[in-house]
Amino acid sequence: MPPPRLRRLLGLGHQARSTGGGPTNTEQYFSAESNSWKSPDDILSILMIIGGDIVQRAVAQLAGSGPWHFAPVAFSFGWLAYSVSALTSAVGDGRLLPPPDIAAYVVNARTGYVRENASWVVCRLMRDHEKRTFKGGSLTVAFYRTRRGVRAGVPARDWVYWSGVLVILAQLAIALIPGALHGNWIVLIVTAGGTALALTASGLPQWREEKYAAREVDEVKGREVVCVTRGNGSTFAMVIISDRTGLRFEDLAGGRDKRRPFTAFMSAVLCLLWIVLLLTVEGLQGDAWYLLAIGGLGMVQNVVAAGAQRSAEALGFYFEPTTKDDIFKEAKVMQTLKRVEEKEPGVGLSMLPIFFPGDLRPDEQAYWDAKKLEKAARETAGKRTPPAQTLPKDPEKVPRTADSPESDLKTSSTVSFKPEVRPETTPPLSQRRMPRTRREDTGATLVDHARP
């Protein structure tokens, strides 16, 4: 059966043909359009299936912000389309996060290993800081040091987070109006149900686990220096120094698999419930403008959350405040790499093959060869240096070793001594005493001349 709007248009066309048509029947067409604008019931079901990719990025921005996996992503028209795509991903590759928006590379400054970034949150960190820090010119390199005393991987709540909370409350307030005026509580039921489903889908534990799938830097001797850049031809690079705190960016760039069977099960249940909600919206009669306003407000919140520029703290990374001495920009890329190499040894060497994959000039080659020799010398000296041993301050608690004097050991009540027992030695044959034996045939006695 065609929808009500199509039925009205078909009925009006049949009436116009039966009466011969004419100017007198045009008022009926305008009357049908007037009724459609008064209550746009048919358009709601169409809007429910658009904007799924926007919803996915909005959830990725806000996932993990709360202690109870609460991500304030408002109910909008794109949730039904997203639920279908989420079910496909959960059954297939098992991922919830979208692919990175931009192509980037993570380079280890110590080993020079280059890893193609597969983390969505690392690419957003790169994108937002590039907009904020880029100074123009050939290449800008900014240094960031992780801050101690805070736990990485727990995003701070910024204006994007609180705007989502306010939009959800505003949607519920709008949904109360038709119920209070006309007794039509279907709008409130649809809004509350859609909000509950949206918060459930965005609060799955896999969102946070997949977003920050990385080991923490060792608090005792761990130190990681990585460079994040878009590659050859880019005009910005960020150097992140994690000194005994923070997450390992090489692990993040790998995009580790954190799939859960529970996620696939919940995705199937949520997809089924979204279809039930769509059928409920299709049967709505009257007051459709309220639901259209609620969905439109949620769509605006999703778009803002998906593309907003956020700070490092809101993305789950905590850095020390940067100064002008942490930002390097020269007229030539080679000059910038030389300056950052003097700032942090190994950084310029690790980025040199990316920005200069070909042959270098003789003076440039000589400079970087000298830096390679210095790096090799540092690594060799670090391997030869024995680990420092911390001795107790109290000399009485110093453990005794084999080199300690025997007089010191004798003062200890826990040490007992035994007399040394020397093993018996066999004298040479010439020094042995032969026993006297009497021969039976002559009665003579053998004399040992070696006997004294």
Short descriptors:
single chain, 452 residues, 48% helix, 7% strand
* Average of the residue pLDDT scores: 81
Biggest sheet record? 6 strands, mixed
Beta strand %: 5-15%
In N-to-C order, the SSE pattern is: HHHHHEEHEHHHEEHHHEHHHH
Number of helices: 16
| Beta-strand segment tally | 6
Low-confidence stretches: 390-395, 401-410, 439-452
How are strands sequenced across the largest beta sheet? 2-1-4-5-3-6
Which structural class do you get from the secondary structure elements? alpha+beta
Rg is: 40 Å
* Cα shape: elongated
Quote the distance from N terminus to C terminus: 137 Å
Percent of residues in helices comes to 40-55%
What does this structure look like?
The protein is an alpha+beta fold and about 450 residues long. Helices cover about 50% and strands about 5% of the residues. It is built from 16 helices and six strands. The protein has a six-stranded mixed beta sheet with strand order 2-1-4-5-3-6, with helices on both faces. Strand 4 and strand 5 form a beta hairpin. Helix 4 (about 50-60) packs across helix 5, helix 7 (about 160-180) packs antiparallel against helix 8 (about 185-200) and helix 7 runs antiparallel to helix 12 (about 290-305). The longest helix is centred in the middle third of the chain and has 24 residues, at about 160-180. The radius of gyration is 40 Å and the shape is elongated. Mean pLDDT is about 80; it is low at about 390-395, about 400-410 and about 440-450.
